[in-house]
Specification:
Layout (H helix, E strand, L loop, with lengths): L11 H12 L3 E3 L6 E3 L7 E5 L13 E5 L5 E6 L1
Parallel strand pairs: 1-2, 3-4
Antiparallel strand pairs: 4-5
Amino acid sequence: MPLVVPGLQSNSGDQTQQWFQKLAGKKIGEKHDENTFAKGDLPQEHRVLKGDSMMTMDHKPDRLNIHTGEDGTVTKVTHG
């Protein structure tokens, strides 16, 4: 039986998947093209994490975390 905690359930998994589909394999830049997603179209609450960069461990459920490879290409998207 799954643990259910009132107030902690969210639909961020669906949002995360939607953002991954938009961003996977692209780079973050100033404007849209077939290989780039415009930074201005990202949610206000976001951060781009390159390779092994350090990050704070505070949890913000609405923050979009965009993980990129060494070349800047998006490899993973999470919320938190």
